[in-house]
Design a protein that fits this description.
Elements (H helix, E strand, L loop, with lengths): L2 H32 L5 H4 L8 H12 L3 H14 L5 H22 L4 H29 L1
Helix pairs in contact: 1-3, 1-5, 4-6, 5-6
Length: 141
Amino acid sequence: MNHLNWLLAPLFVHVALTLFVGLRTISFRIATVMKGETKLQDIALNSNNWPPHVKKWGNNFDNQFDVPTVWYALSALIVATAKIDLAFIILSWLFVASRLAHSYIHTGSNFIRYRMYAFLAGFAILMFMWAWFAIRLFIIG
């Protein structure tokens, strides 16, 4: 695999995570409606009315479009400017690992302290990636 493939691979892993969480969310929502646990009129204008186990999956699905979108934008800029290097590849894999950990905790035990650590790790990695990109683009050249 070349550097581009190694940079894109973690994006494919994150897309797979997002699709998995989305499908689980859909299946849980359909199941609660079919069982009569949730009435459509109760959630039509307020998604807070889903049962807690469904809501946490929906919240996690929403989370996959928050901070990761900044990473997707950065990845596109790295490719467009031909600034791919080993640091970006390693940091992208670490970012995805933090997202996987965050999802695992969020949809499982939902232990807030560990979930926060996973989120903060990914956030710090992303901040470092943007700083490294700026250095590579404006200082190193």
